[in-house]
Amino acid sequence: MNLRRDVFQAIADPTRRAILLLLATQSMSAGAIAANFDTARPTVSKHLQILTECELLRQEQNGREVIYQLNPSKVKEVADWAEQFRQLWDDRFNKLEDIMKKYI
Known about the structure:
Elements: H1 7-11, H2 14-23, E1 28-29, H3 30-34, H4 41-53, E2 57-62, E3 65-70, H5 72-103
Antiparallel strand pairs: 1-3, 2-3
């Protein structure tokens, strides 16, 4: 059975979030990404596989090297989904601020 990875489970891991931050500014090879972490390269490769399977990353073959880059459209989907919660919390904090101003 071919189960698709869940994007939210993928970004729940701090190492995978760090990989996304690394790739936000430039495309990198697996080796270059792994050099930023104090873990075994196969561990980083597994994280890259998960991020690729949930379409947060794209792979491009460059000779013998695979280059990873952020998939902006998928990241935007996640950001758009999370935005509704940011707005909700902004509204709640603004209401709390208004209440606090009355008593200060």
